[in-house]
Amino acid sequence: MGQDEKKGTIVLDNFNSTTNLTTNPGFQSTLSLGSKEVINEKAYNPFEHRKVEHPNSTIGSLVHLLKSSLGSGILAMPAAFKNAGLAIGALGTIIIGFICTHCVYVLVKTSQEVCVEAKKPSMGFAETCGAAFEFGPKRLRPWANFARTFIDYTLTCTYLAALCVYVVFIAENFKEVLDEYNPDYKLSVEVYCALTLVPLVLICQIRNLKWLVPFSALANVFLVICFAITMYYIFTDLPNPAERKTVASVTQWPLFISTVIFAMEGIGVVMPVENEMAKPQQFLGCPGVLNVAMTIVISLYGIVGFFGYIKFGESVRGSVTLNLPQDEILAQSAKILMALSILFTYSLQFYVPMEMIWRQIHDKIAVKYHEITQISIRTTAVIGSVALAAAFPDLELFINLCGAIFLSSLGLLTPAIVDTVHNWDRGLGKFNWILWKNIFISIISFIALFAGSYVSIISMVEKYNSTAMIGKGANMTSLST
């Protein structure tokens, strides 16, 4: 066949019924001429490719999410209101709660979207942050590994610090009760911290979230009963709200922000819970697991904080259960139930740092040593948290510092950065509202980080100095005697 004949020939060798109608790759033709062959590749759906050995139900996921946020922090809310006042505390709780919920939402949403781009069924917190950079602006792509590693280590430190707070909660509540029955031989908080070691080591050997659901459910029951008893005491002979500060000193607001962020933030648990859901599409949306859980959390936190501060005023302690009467059985039962609730919650919070540690090292260890290595690491981590808690048993200041340093950066700043990077090339909305929104969240995070840390450390130093002076005075008195 000659050259001229070729020019006039229509070649049908590669003809198909879904012929491309444009060179724009974003356009997908839906024309079909009856061919059974599907030419266009189906969009990757990560939910269809997830294979979870022990998937959680929607209710089970809601229980886990509630438990991760409704821990010891709810009973620290009256102390938070002390640093803000009634009006600022109520308004601030709603605002910070909304911001925390939004940050969790954008993180999960980003994770689901980058899973489609990376063609992976699921991603953890660190993987999501790394993927946001990897599939983001070209200039930022070399930072993907750094973002992944940074979040891994920071999240591990965050939850190990939170576990120390949990140990102090357990120890102080048990001490309050047992000191009443043994007044002649009172043990220190440090000793009670040490006594938590054995049960915590045992419960932390559980490795699947599915098997932790009963513990979370039981912890929620204990917490509800404790909450009911605490509210009974709070609403009994409630003072006039006019006796309390409406607006506290601005210098104390960072402590309020830090405490509320610590109390509400469960961002490290969010991704494991969403990744192990049987129906992960029910996590976001309305009503959705996230919205239902956070609506309950914000409401309860506001109620406990507002009325707890009205009841106990400036004398309120790091956990409001410690303000309950020491000599009444009902109040004692609330303290015991609270301690047990936190004990069972410990294993859920422990899941996050352990999952990250194991992911980093399991490939470097022979399979036959996996079991003994898991047991050793889990035991060592629990011992470390108990030892650190015994070294710094001041509950309220510990909460403030943890919230300021760790959870403000991970719970607020990180999702804001990830959301910005992920949407930079995809569009930041009309008038760049996504960018401005994330700048506002970052400012809140920096206020909590720097101002909250400064005020917490200053308070710790002052308390340490006052304790040292009291001890020195006692020694001088004994010498003079």
Automatic annotation (TrEMBL):
Residues 56-458 form the Amino acid transporter transmembrane domain. It is found in: Membrane. One of its GO terms (molecular function) is L-amino acid transmembrane transporter activity. One of its GO terms (cellular component) is vacuolar membrane. InterPro entries: AA_transpt_TM. It is a multi-pass membrane protein. Keywords: Membrane, Transmembrane, Transmembrane helix. The chain crosses the membrane at residues 59-81, 87-108, 150-169, 189-206, 213-235, 255-273, 285-309, 329-354, 398-418, 439-461. This is Proton-coupled amino acid transporter-like protein pathetic.
